[in-house]
Design brief:
heterodimer; A: 153 residues; mainly beta; Immunoglobulin-like; 5-stranded antiparallel beta sheet; 3-stranded mixed beta sheet; 8 strands; 36% strand; B: 503 residues; 6 helices; 34 strands; 11% helix; globular; binds fe (ii) ion
Chain lengths: 153, 503
């Protein structure tokens, strides 16, 4: 192997490392929120794991959470360094910025919300299984969409 | 028919000046129709979609002016778009609502009507097809409903309260309407805590302007909601009571101290509805073994205070209720042996089928005693529905109920008569419409102080001329026939409930 070859290999490895650092390591999950109606308040995104005896979505299942100023339309966030396994995303548009999903006295949300895979429940949240996204052993960036739904007004 | 809605002033002017023009149009309509119209054809006309999204015309009359003192607007609501994008709904109650205003100006009566462009209807406009589940029909490839207002068609009744005009449905929020343009506005947000919570179509207003209503939520965690709203339109109190199982609770009664809700044993199976395979109506099950459960609610605390049991039956409407000194409650009830007229007959009507197969509601009085005893009085023979009272008697003793009735055969719709009943005594006065006219709900409009001193005002569909008309009766002399009537140059689909706002 010539010196120039070694240089090329070294350069290639450096580029690969740089590339990886700029995108994602294995076990990263990109979440794309679609259909945000306004830039009011914050988008709050929680990453859940399955917990026996806990009904999704519940604070007991949250392993990571991200809050960002809301952007009308679409926005992306990335959860990094995730151990392999099943996850589900629950997000809401905290338009009034009080840190909570506003609900009426029946517990029905009055702010926008959504789940990974576009999962929907009937008069309630979906099951964890319907919203599951699986992070595997393989390297790469996983991406999942969360379409936001809003109560009519 | 004008395409664009004229202003109120335009309508007032038109009322005075244009009857001749519309008389000519009405005459054209009359020559189109066959001399004799079968029951099947008449039903087809009544359940056809409205001819235009917006309508406006004076009523043509040959009988002079409406009675002096009868001024204001009869607001009506009902399903009007049964067909859209080539899709026809299967049930009378499915269609998108349309508000109708019949303005009594003193000189004459002018009509305006407009289909309510709800968020549900706008969603379907964006898709270019019907995509939202309806009360009794699932369009092919329908979307999932996230919240009740996603399927709110605002097609059942009209409420005027605290300076606001609202179209009501049963399964979702009240929809505000602009009284000038009749345009659909926003869903009414009484308070953040009740945003998007069902608000039923038969609220009751007390003499001080306080409004009570129920909300019926027969979901996986079934509850009834009770509302108290002050005369300024502010929510004073709301309460939730779990009730399982639960089906449709369409109407209720308000007395001096209580609200009374009667629950027919026609209950929703939430799992069946959640499966997405059947409509809301078809997810209901008739379970006569449950009997009719009666809840009495304290109208101040909004807590359930008493429970009574009555034999099974199916009903939509009450008229009024009142409380005697010892706490005994007497209330009006239009009840059928079972729900067949809703599950079968109102579907058959949409298919234009001939005769109905189910027994229809008839009038009876219910007595609830404070010791827990309850009984249902004997039925007045024949079918009776759309009960109305002199609304100044709401919650206190009343001696008369106005209703639509059939010829006494119990067949029900199409009703052929308007009647006055005395609770406990039965029918005391009536008027039979000509065979080619189908009466719709008639409402009482007061004149003097005494109960019943006033007029009974309501619309009818003339299936021979293919036009909708409006009649005015002396409320205590129905058998004299209408003292004034007028007709439009177009038919309106048979509607549901209305309210008269005096001016
Ligand atoms: Fe009703």
């Amino acid at each position: 192997m010539t010196r120039s070859n070694n240089t090329l290999v070294g350069l290639a490895l450096a580029c690969l490392a740089l590339f990886a650092a700029q995108t994602a390591l294995a076990g990263d999950l990109e979440v794309r929120l679609d259909g945000l109606r306004s830039a009011d308040g914050d988008a709050r995104i929680a990453l859940h794991r399955r917990v026996d005896g806990v009904k999704f979505p519940d604070g007991a299942g949250v392993v990571a959470a991200i809050s960002r100023r809301a952007v009308a339309g679409s926005m992306r966030v990335v959860f990094t360094d995730l151990p392999p396994g099943d996850y589900a995303v629950a997000a809401f548009h905290d338009a009034d910025g009080d840190g909570e999903l506003a609900t009426n006295l029946l517990g029905m949300p009055t702010e926008g919300y959504g789940f990974s895979n576009g999962a929907r429940g009937f008069m309630g949240p979906p099951r964890f299984d319907a919203a599951t996204v699986t992070v595997g052993q393989e390297a790469g960036l996983l991406s999942v969409a969360v379409p936001m739904g809003y109560p009519e007004s | 028919m004008m395409k664009k809605l004229p202003s109120r002033r335009d309508v007032l002017l038109a009322t005075a000046g244009l009857p001749a023009l519309f008389a000519a149009r009405a005459a054209v309509g009359a020559t189109d129709a066959p001399a004799a119209t079968s029951a099947r054809q008449s039903r087809t006309i009544g359940f056809a979609s409205v001819v235009a999204e917006e309508l406006s015309s004076p009523l043509e009359t040959s009988g002079g002016r409406p009675p002096a003192g009868l001024t204001g607007i009869l607001w009506r609501n009902g399903p009007a778009e049964h067909d859209r994008f080539g899709h026809r709904y299967g049930h009378w109650f499915d269609g998108d609502g349309m508000v109708q205003a019949f303005a009594f100006t003193g000189a004459g009566v002018a009509h305006r009507g407009r289909v309510l462009d709800t968020p549900k209807r706008r969603r379907e406009t964006r898709h270019g097809k019907r995509v939202v589940p309806a009360f009794a029909t699932l369009p092919p490839g329908h979307t999932q409903v996230l919240a009740p207002d996603d399927m709110n068609v605002a097609n059942t009744s009209i409420l005027a309260h605290a300076g606001r005009l609202m179209a009501l449905w049963e399964g979702g929020s009240a929809l505000e309407i602009d009284p000038e343009t009749l345009a659909a506005g926003r869903f009414v947000d009484w308070a953040p805590s009740v945003a998007g919570v069902p608000f039923s179509a038969h609220p009751k207003i007390g003499r001080d302007g306080t409004l009570w209503n129920i909300g019926c939520v027969p979901g996986p965690r079934p509850v009834l909601v009770f509302y108290r709203i002050d005369r300024a339109g502010r929510l004073v109190k709301a309460n939730v009571a779990p009730v399982a199982p639960l089906g449709m609770a369409h109407d209720f009664v308000m007395t001096a101290r209580h609200l009374v809700v009667m629950l027919a044993p026609f209950v929703l199976e939430p799992d069946l509805l959640a499966s997405g395979r059947v409509s809301f109506l078809d997810a209901h099950d008739w379970r006569p073994a449950l009997g009719t459960r009666v809840l009495t609610i304290d109208r101040d605390t909004l807590e359930v205070k008493r429970r009574h049991e009555l034999p099974p039956g199916f009903h939509f409407h009450h008229g009024n209720g009142w409380e005697e000194a010892d706490g005994t409650i007497r209330l009006d009830l239009c009840q059928a042996p079972g729900p067949g007229f809703v599950t079968r007959d109102l579907r058959a009507a949409m298919r234009g089928e001939g005769r109905f197969s189910s027994a229809h509601p008839s009038y009876r009085q219910v007595v609830l005693e404070p010791n827990g005893a309850a009984r249902v009085g004997p039925a007045v023979p024949g079918a009776a529905e759309f009960p109305r009272i002199d609304s100044r008697r709401t919650g206190i003793r009343h001696d008369m109920v106005f209703a639509l009735a059939d010829g006494g055969e119990g067949e029900g719709w199409p009703f052929s008569r308007v009647v006055r009943l005395e609770p406990g005594n039965g029918e005391v006065d009536s008027w039979t419409f000509p065979g080619h006219r189908i009466p719709e709900e008639h409402v009482f409009v007061p004149r003097g102080e005494a109960e019943g001193d006033g007029w009974l005002v309501g619309s009818f569909l003339d299936v021979r001329r293919r036009v909708t008309g409006l009649g005015v009766f002396e409320a205590m002399r129905l058998s004299d026939g209408p003292v004034w009537e007028g007709v439009l140059p177009y038919p309106l689909p048979l509607g549901l409930h209305g309210t008269f706002v005096k001016s």
